[in-house]
Write a structure and sequence with these properties.
With 83 residues, this protein is mainly alpha-helical. It has one domain. It is 71% helix and 0% strand. Helix 2 packs antiparallel against helix 3. The two termini are 14 Å apart. This is DUF2061 domain-containing protein. Pfam families: DUF2061. InterPro entries: DUF2061_membrane.
Length: 83
Amino acid sequence: MILDQVKSKSTYKKDTTSEKPLRSILKTVSWRIVGTVDTIAISWLLTGEIETALAIGSVELVTKMILYFGHERLWNMISFGKE
């Protein structure tokens, strides 16, 4: 592909290895904590009911962790943006 043939200089340190699944899992969990707290807060503001907000946050926590992990692993297989 043409993009693969174009060589550009980068100021970033070269990443010599791809991420391991454990790193992706830890990133997934930390991001979901932030995202779930946000979802619960927004749900509480919109519904005025903490029970409903917690229920929405609980479902969202599980589904989005699975989706993010899969998304992260797929992007790790794509060479675009890597040297």
